[in-house]
Fold this protein.
Amino acid sequence: MTLVSDTQAAVVHPKPQSARFTVSVPAVVLWTVILFLCLTPFLLVLAISFGQKIEGASWEWAFTFANYERVFVGANWPEEFTALYLQRLYYSLFYAVIAALLAILTAFPFTYLMTRLSRRAQSAWLVFILSSLSLSEVFIVMGWDVLLSNRSGLPMVFKETGLTDWLKANGYFETMREWGLANPRNVKFKTSVFATVLTMAYLVWPYAVILLYPPLSRLDRSMIEASQTMGAGPWTVMRTVILPTMRLPLLGATLLLFVFLLGVYVAVTVFAEPAKQTMAVSVYEAVRGNTLNAPFGSAQAVVLLCTAAIFLVAGQWISRKSAP
Amino acid sequence: MTKMNRRTLLKSASGIAGVAAASSVLGTPLIAQTRSLKIGSYGGYFENSFKEFVYPAFTEATGITVESVTQPNSTDWLVSMQQATAAGNVPADLSLYARDTLIKASRIGGLLAPLDPKKMPATSNLDGYFVFEDTTGAIGVGAMSWFTAMVINPDEVDAPESWAEFWDSSKFEASLGLSKNYNSHFLDIVAATFFDGEATLLEKDGVVSVIEKAAEIKPNVALWWSAESQMEQSMKNGDIIGGQYYLDVANLMALDGFAIQPVFPKEGNPQDYGSWCLSAISEKADEAAEFINFSSDPATQALMSRKIGTAPLVDKSKTDLTDDEFAFVSGTPSIKPAYEAYLDNETFIKETWEKMLAGA
């Protein structure tokens, strides 16, 4: 901190007037470019969301709220009401919350133990985790698709080890069929909420580690040692010392992963049944699918964006309130 | 040193200019003689077969070289072409569109150029249904057709006699793969099996009853596929033991030794077809007409059936296809999709269908 402010002072101090002038022109250009790149796509989506669909053809520019109305009550309102799109929004939130929590809950102990390793081991782990980020969503989904397939994955293991027969013999198989995790022949994990959430959590797990690593490695060891000297066991240390100090980073990381997961597309199309698909899929299907309904896709995108914004603002509010 | 450098520079510069001038004089007539055409087709095995077998035969027959352009599918390609047309530079002269996309393009307007039937005498081999005309003229000529067939895993079940057997949960519980798209012909199958076919889908009430019937099959469906590869993988892996899939691909998979068998039940299978359509801003109308003329020739239709696995659009008697070769790509009866209904009540059918899938 001090280093940065010192350098800034050294640069600015000698000629304050001209420095301000030379800085402002590139700054203005930079801001214009940033605003242009950030705002134009967003404004375009917003403008298109008020457009009008022409049945059997494409769409035209207009100013109607019909697309927003359709998101909340369906296209055939008022004769008929449907919560179809709200249901999709619900599943967007549902998967994102569960997967983000799952990723953080598993990444937290891992990262904590990692920070207690030697410097060398820590950097090896970090490099490994960073490099796993180069795998795209498509690759990861393909991998899990194979791992959960009947003939090459987990169901095969169930069958070969006799677990399937054991489940059948003990009556658990019927329960799995009721849960949609089995067909008459064997267990099945595609399509299921289990597979969707698992893959989504796996997808953001490296991010969770990378987000939690800096605060955990800065954690003051002397506090832990002090509490241990005073007779606290590992769980008490975790509950009364580590978790309270880590509350804000944990909240921040969960929110970030949650917002990231709202837009997951491939994992949901592959692993979730149509009844449990999300708004991101619905947006894509409206814009690129068979109907060429970009206005309705845009309206759904705006609703999704507003939902994400509400969560971020709420998160900010909570962290500000709980800040010392 | 400086002087010499400058001299060499000038010398080489004039040399380059000279070569450029010479090539422009010599090259122009050469380029004018090489006629070319950019043709779009669905990427993957399909496009590769076109590049390997059909385009070379066309170049040999006419001297026109073909540049193959990859289309992801029909509807998404229309979005790309719409944007490209507005920008004034299209990636392909001829595109391949399914009939519903073709009608949609016609309704949007300004995307397709009318074709001159006089320049394509061989199109008389096709049934009139396959030459699509709107107010501007003939804007799409049939290229090839394909069936979406009932498929089963012959190691697990016997071939059903009717599509209705797919509704039997004692046989197919959580075991079928059907297309998730509302207009991928499952509704046409339901309408043909339990109702009056195409006519039922033209009325909104009919659509509702068809979709209600379709809802009853949900417990038997393990996979609602959106990409072809999902269905392929699931059949290969045994995640499912039946469903709807492309006839030609199913036959190819069976040839590769996978446990899959296409079936023609008594109601038949839906038949769809693709059309060659010329972009409104293409300057290759003559070359395009020659290609469509070539493609409509019974010999080319037979070539496509053999090498790509598509069904011919000309009568079997006009081609030299054997009964076995014909059975590989075609069959009877064929279910005609209700294209107009899907377009006129687009939003209604899509939302009712998706509500059914979502149970909302």
User: Anything to note?
Assistant: The interface with chain B takes residues 53-58, 74-76, 82-84, 87-88, 145, 149-152, 177, 180, 182-185, 188, 190-191, 269-270, 273-275, 277, 288-293 of chain A (CB under 8 Å). Chain A is about 75% helix and 0% strand. Confidence is low (pLDDT under 50) at residues 1-16 of chain A.
